[in-house]
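Aim 2, interim progress: modelling of the NAP-bound target.
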Amino acid sequence: MSAQVLSGKQLASEKREDMKASVQALKEKGVTPGLAVILVGEDPASQTYVRNKQKACENTGIHSELIELPETTPENELLSRIEELNRDESIDGILVQLPLPSHISEQSVIEAIAPSKDVDCFHPTNVGKMMIGEEGFLPCTPHGILVMLKESGVDIAGKHAVIIGRSNIVGKPVGQLLLNEHATVTYCHSRTPNLREMTRQADILVVAVGRYGVVGGEDIKEGAVVIDVGMNRVEGKLRGDVEFESAKEKASLITPVPGGVGPMTITMLLDNTIHSARKRS
Ligand code: NAP
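Predicted structure of the complex, ligand included:
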């Protein structure tokens, strides 16, 4: 069997076309969706992520504002910039690019963002809403994965979803969203013994570790759906966490890296920003 390759790039570009129309409709009502992105320091990977987010905003018609602060910015100064953006009526979403320099508490920064503008869905209020299935922002990468599964016609209810990784950004929330869709969810992490025993039981396998090759064809059940979240530089090339070639022979559906989950993540960020702006229309 050779898996169908699920192109997040293709789906993202279709979704973004629809979003352009939504943004245009909002503009006709006098509302231009606005996203503020704060970048502290000069980490090259963060600079690339921020640039990509800005470019995506521009292409969709969303106003984006980049606030670049030096590495040495004191925490209280960052918090007061967030406060200003919380009050700014032209801004619908605020995103602080992580990681932050070690003298700044990520949690304090996340909690300073008004939940109504927390388009990354990291604020405890929004995480709580997601847990209990209340309407609100959904975290971008997990939401992107859910949309990819649904749009490819994957039946989630009753399936066994195995998630490798338990970060607050990817692992935990993707499991929660799949649970909300009635999957039976198993979380694995660095202390899980016999990882292969778990992954081989997965109907839907989500891999969010950050290490190339953590999963290969021999770890996958025949016909499984494999979602590769990882982004790793291997000999200068962008690779996922999954050995794509061997996994493709076992899976029924698999996401590539690049061109899989990544483009959907940014698309869901745009989606959250547009949703937030609708409250002003
Ligand atoms: P993270 O915070 O470092 O979490 C990694 C998780 O993997 C942890 O829960 C860790 O377990 C687990 N882990 C580490 N080694 C393992 C092993 N050998 N076996 C099983 N589990 C293991 O990373 P993250 O932020 O979730 O990101 C994960 C990957 O996704 C990274 O490559 C990141 O770049 C990528 N990512 C991609 C997107 C996108 O849009 N495509 C978005 C976000 C992240 P412990 O908890 O026990 O330490």
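The chain has a mean pLDDT of 97. The longest strand covers residues 34-40.
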